Known about the structure:
Strand order of the largest sheet: 1-2-3-4
Strand content: 15-25%
Number of strands: 4
Radius of gyration: 15 Å
Structural class: alpha+beta
Bound molecules: zinc ion
Number of helices: 4
Shape: globular
Helix content: 40-55%
Amino acid sequence: MAGSRMRRLRGLEILAYGNQIRCENDSRYLVHSQSRNGWYEIRWSRDRWICQCPDYVKRKMACKHIYAVVCLLALPEILATNTTHLRIRGRKQTQSDESRQIVMTA
Ligand SMILES: [Zn+2]
């Protein structure tokens, strides 16, 4: 699997996990580190998102934290195109939900 595709999936995973992203303002977000305690700052600078994590610093390309923020910002549009299939109801977590989470983090 291509590296960028893997990072995109990792970003989705961070987003789906919940409580991992904080918005400071339009051009500044904090994303919780998945490997240690603490937060990485994601900033909009010169027409691109930049991150402080070692992966971004080394490659200068979008990391999983940046993908997490980009996915979050795209959510209203994603929801809008899926609302006909959206079912919101209170329910307990089922066995199949847990299985799906295991698949996602594998
Ligand atoms: Zn990063």
